[in-house]
Amino acid sequence: MSIGHARLPTNFKYIRYKILLVSFSCRPSNMAAGLNIFLLLIFSYVCSSLGDPKVVCYCDEKGFSRQGQGKFDIAFLEPALQFCTHLVYGYAGIDPYTNKIKPLNEQLDVQQHTFQQITNLKRRFPGLRVLLSVGGDRDNAGPDSDKAATYKTILEAVDKRLTFINSAKEFIQKHHFDGIDLAWEMPKTKPKKIHGGFKQFFISIKHSVVGESIVDDKAEDHKEQFTAFIREFRNALKHDALLLTLSVLPNVNSTVYYDARQLAPHLDFVTLQNFDFYTPERNPKEADYSSPLYEIYGRKFDENGDFQVRYWLSNGFPANKIVYGIQTYGRTWKMTSASGITGVPPLTIDEGPGEAGTYTQEPGLLSYNEICTKIPTPTEVKAGYVGKLRKVNDPTKKAVTDENWNIIDVSKRFGTYAYKEPKNEQDGIWVSFQDPDTAEQIVSYVRARGLGGVAVVDLTLDDFRGLCTANKYPILRASANLRM
């Protein structure tokens, strides 16, 4: 049901009971009073619903397969849900032969009943909406040269789109999800090339004027097809009160693929995953902030969260449907003598990604609980122990040091990084990450912009065991302050 351009939430059914309260008499005076009360109830409910901020919690099944202190399970998920309005579980994929949805980890999700355990959590948390996410850069069905091939193929044919839509609807209803999140895999932008001096200056000017080089010859067609796809999907779901959301994956160019104004009526919300602009995979020769909130001088103008938000706002997408994504992990590079000694980004890198973490076992990536245990505590600082990472929060280079040996700055515009200088070319590391402090800064930004909420991506990489502080899920807790 909708009023004007505002889609009423799917739990609007409770207003039926309000109708009974006001329909107590057929006398004209009472009918008029009842109608006024009824309209007031609708108006108040719509306003409160549109203004109620979301905390969208992503949970990647990958965490269930880790070992040791990094292993995640349902018991660790439950303490987080008191802070979440929505839970997005991922990921499902697409069968390239049938064009139907499929579980990417059938043994875990179906045979071990994780889907059922996830959706059963709604019994303990009645207000929680649980969605299944498709894609998420986890479905590598396409050839190595084009991981998005299957996803583009689906868009290009109406019959394939409808086959996928019908299979997805049947799938989420079978497993009792409240809706589907499309973390649709589109071609990625090309990473920044490393140039020196004047050449880099002119390259930056070129990008700001004419944009990026072409990564998809059919981009305009795919943009129109995706809009049609979303419209068709909404039509299929609307009679069953199922949610439809979009996750804009890192380094997917929204200006190329998403017609914000046309998508707005059909999506419940969109999550902008404003991180991984810089990664050791995309940028093996240079380390830099992976998730800056604002544009940084000398970098690509669109590789920051504020640019992404402004694109969607300026192109007609409602602010209260925009959710800002916050990462719970860091990207790491190996520091050597070529990287200098200051740690100030950008850094020259000649040995690629940092070593894999103890829990995540993935080169170039550390979960927040792997990062925070490498940063010295105040007690360790006072004892003169300097064998851990040095955390830096100062994007302006106006260094102010606190009593815990951390460099601080109130603006926190670009994110947080930490580093350890190499000794004899060994053990050097540089990591860009978000922590509770930067999450708080993003919360302030979301409030100021009047956005719809924040998304924590993902719970399995936050400090869910409370290894660093007495509180579990420190990044989620900081993000959930949006609702206070």
TrEMBL record:
Belongs to the glycosyl hydrolase 18 family. IDGF subfamily. Residues 53-484 form the GH18 domain. This is GH18 domain-containing protein. GO terms for biological process: carbohydrate metabolic process; chitin catabolic process. The keyword Kinase does not apply. Pfam families: Glyco_hydro_18. Keywords: Disulfide bond, Glycoprotein, Secreted, Signal. InterPro entries: Chitinase_II/V-like_cat, Chitinase_insertion_sf, GH, Glyco_hydro18_cat, Glycosyl_Hydrlase_18. It is found in: Secreted. It comes from Psylliodes chrysocephalus. Transmembrane segments: none annotated. One of its GO terms (molecular function) is chitin binding. SMART domains: Glyco_18. GO terms for cellular component: extracellular region.
